[in-house]
Amino acid sequence: MTISVVGHSNPDTDSVTAAIALSALFNAQGTEAKACMQIAAADLNPESTTVLKRFGLAAPELLEDAAGKDIALVDFSDLAQGPANLDSANVVAVVDHHKIGDVTTNSPILFRAEPVGCTGTVLNKMFKDAGVAIPKDVAGGMLSAILSDTVNFKSPTCTEDDKAAVNDLKAVAGVDDTEELFMAMLKAKSAVDGVPAKDLLFRDYKDFDMKGKKVGVGQLELATLDQVADIRADLMKAMEEVKADGRHTVLLMLTDVVKEGTDLVVVSDDPALVEKAFDGKLEGNCMWIQGMMSRKKQTVPNLQKAFGC
């Protein structure tokens, strides 16, 4: 049976390119695999679309239901972030850089998770370990993912392994100017004009289980907060609608890449708990948190502690 390699819901560039890269590695090793994602290609976020086009990569196939399939997970290991019926699929591999989630298996599997800034960095090591050359187009996608996930090395999640992987991959991909590549991705990622507020909220969004309470965290990386000045009311309305669908809290990280901080927008049953999590004070529904760049390392862990996870 062909292995379907899939990343998390509302896929970012790492999730998309990691699915492409791991399926390429499996196929090179003689195991039939295909790259998948949980949305149609037409719904892919602007940054990922830009990356795929730039390096000539085909978008992964749509996978909505995992029941009965052999599945490999990249960039996540939480059931809530997977396709429908993931709990009845045969999970054969996990490659990730987040905390270990709640996916379980009936037998040993390939499981590789490392505390680095991007799944692409882990995959770069896996290609090396296997003695398999990374195709030029795949290297371009992996390179882009690392630059995106580490915010061009500004994120606190960035490690020396990520920087080393970028040096490896840019040579394979034929990219001399990684700064130009990052800025092209940021331009695409931060484009908000004409995009519905709910689509912006879900552009890079994940739900988490916090002690039985559902908490959603979205993130928009921007060149300047002025880009969303005229649509804040629309974003709040979208957050309130999403919260009403059974969530305790919905947060939107408006991350200013230049100023290296986040304007955290909050809709919650317990705003004081969120204030406690980040040792700050909400002004209206927002608080500026200097230095906050990473949902994985700075936002979710603080929330988990506050919720008593």
Can you describe what's shown?
This protein has 309 residues and is of the alpha/beta class. It folds into two domains: 3-187, inorganic pyrophosphatase (n-terminal core) (Alpha-Beta Complex), CATH 3.90.1640.10; 197-307, DHHA2 domain (Diaminopimelate Epimerase, Chain A, domain 1). Helix content is 38%, strand content 21%. The chain has ten helices and eleven strands. The protein has helices spanning 13-28, 46-55, 119-130, 136-149, 160-173, 178-189, 197-201, 232-243, 271-278, 295-307; strands at 3-6, 33-37, 61-62, 70-74, 90-96, 110-113, 205-210, 213-222, 249-256, 261-268, 286-290. The strands form two sheets. A six-stranded parallel beta sheet has the order 3-2-1-4-5-6. Strands 7-8-9-10-11 form a five-stranded mixed beta sheet, with helices on both faces. A hairpin with a 4-residue loop joins strand 9 (249-256) and strand 10. Helix 1 (13-28) packs antiparallel against helix 4, helix 3 packs antiparallel against helix 4 (136-149) and helix 4 packs antiparallel against helix 5 (160-173). The longest helix is centred in the N-terminal third of the chain and has 16 residues, at 13-28. The model has no long low-confidence stretch (mean pLDDT 96).
Search tags:
single chain, 309 residues, alpha/beta, inorganic pyrophosphatase (n-terminal core), Diaminopimelate Epimerase, Chain A, domain 1, 2 domains, 6-stranded parallel sheet, 5-stranded mixed sheet
The number of E-state strands comes to 11
Low-confidence stretches: none
Largest sheet: 6 strands, parallel
CATH fold-level name of the largest domain: inorganic pyrophosphatase (n-terminal core)
